[in-house]
Amino acid sequence: EFQIWGQEPTLVLPYITEHWADWSSILPNLEKTMFSTNAIHCVDEIYDFIIEANKYATTPLHMTFQISYDGYLGTNNARKADADLIKNNVMNLITKLNQISLPNIGEIIFSYHGVISKEIFNNLLTIEQIEDYIKEINTFLSDINNNRPPVRKPIDIIIQGVRFSDSQCSIAGANNECCL
Asked: What is the pTM of this model?
């Protein structure tokens, strides 16, 4: 499995894509790739990476792109973006992918989840603020789920619940509703 982690892995994706033939020769039986992204930038780079990975895959390649949404405090303030930009970027990418053949890709999963980091959690001073923040993230996730574009295999969209980073606590409930 080939994974890329860090602040925003897609920032180095053009370099990985440029040398994917080399990576493929080192990892000839690669079955999975995975990385996380906030989907604010680098959508074209993700598309280019998928095209290149398809070109060199020798077994059906399963690709997961974990889309993290930090809610309005993390996304709007820190990254100068918004939920609509993130939704539109991924939907545009899926639309482009739906138009091409990817014979060597077994699966492409766009896995959405909400994240509440310790830094954001520390800015939420009351239980009501925490509940409102979780509701906002769930609204984002529900909107993605309810307004997804048509996808064709091998593409799929998975909606996960909200989780706290920097802790072992998961607050995802049934139907992507969250509870504390």
From this structure: 0.80
